[in-house]
Amino acid sequence: MIKKYLAVGALTGLAACSGGEFLFPDGEDEETPVATTTYSNEVNKVEYDSENDELVINNLPFDGPDGVYERVQDRTEVNGFGVYTSLQTEETGQRRYYAVFRRTENGAVSAVSSSSYRNFGFGGTSIARTNDLTTMPTEGEYVYSGLYGGVRTFSDRSGLELVKGDVLLEVDIADFDETGAVEGRVNNRVAYDVGGVPLRPMPNIIFTTTSIAADTGVIEEGTASTIVEGATRDTGTYQGLFVGKDGEEIVGTVSLTGTFHAYRIIETVDVTDDEGNVTQEERALPYTELLAIRAAGDQERLDRIEISETSEGYQARELGVFTTAD
């Protein structure tokens, strides 16, 4: 069966991104060009096969000869993002990769990285328009809200985590003069294992103010960071695209690096021996159990719990993407 894809022309003006084409299924018009796409890191081409619900990602080593990624069936999505993994046989696909992917009415985003390297490994992001941007607003302030998904890898160990969050972008079209302004944040950020089990809460990501290229609808690269107790923990960048006929959606990408912090939950419990003597012991709890205790409103147990975060002395890198609407 011949699969049809919609080619998207490459954007050359975004900083720190390579050119290429994002291929997106249309089903009717095989070669209709639309506006803009961009990639980061090693990724330089992404395809989505809607008939088989598969991604095809190019330029990542050892992810199989065809670069095919199938949906993880026991964890079909995190926060509205489909989760996909590379295929492996005895002789091919020797490194395991995971990707998050989401498409909206007017855009598509993906982030991918590998769990198999004892460092950050290979990966990247893609953001794309899938319909022409006809006109941009020329005045006014707007608030865009939406969803965030990402993948995290580590500088001194293998493994991979998925991340979810909620995005809020504030846009002023008229000021700065000629360019407009964007700033925002990612709230309610949580790390998951690849099976979808929540591992720990994560600090909010802050997007500092950056400008808009009004003629293309490109949100120029700005600074992204997390701040914990007044100190910066992670630093990186974000950027994006207005998509839709009137710029009614924004899609974007985030790259963050910082020291990994372990999240430890310790509960002090009473233990009675066979002679009736009571002693106290400390027991480590998984984050899922803490969530269950909070949901049950068990204040007695909550009073016995202490939570701490400890720097582990190695780095974590997060590649994330988001979709928002006005």
Overview features:
mainly beta; eleven-stranded mixed sheet; single chain; eight-stranded antiparallel beta barrel; 326 residues; 21 strands; 2 domains; 2 helices
Folded structure, characterized:
- The protein has 326 residues and is mainly beta.
- It has 2 domains: 6-261 and 312-325, no CATH class; 262-311, no CATH class.
- 4% of the residues lie in helices and 56% in strands.
- It is built from 2 helices and 21 strands.
- The protein has helices at residues 287-296, 299-302; strands at residues 6-8, 21-24, 37-39, 45-49, 54-58, 68-71, 77-78, 81-86, 97-103, 107-114, 123-129, 141-154, 161-172, 181-192, 198-201, 205-213, 218-228, 231-243, 249-272, 278-284, 305-325.
- The strands form 2 sheets. Strands 1, 2, 3, 4, 5, 6, 7, 8, 9, 10 and 11 form an 11-stranded mixed sheet that branches. Strands 12-13-14-16-17-18-19-21 form an 8-stranded antiparallel beta barrel.
- The longest helix has 10 residues, at 287-296.
- The protein is globular.
- The protein starts with 5 loop residues before the first strand and ends with a strand.
- The relative contact order is 0.15.
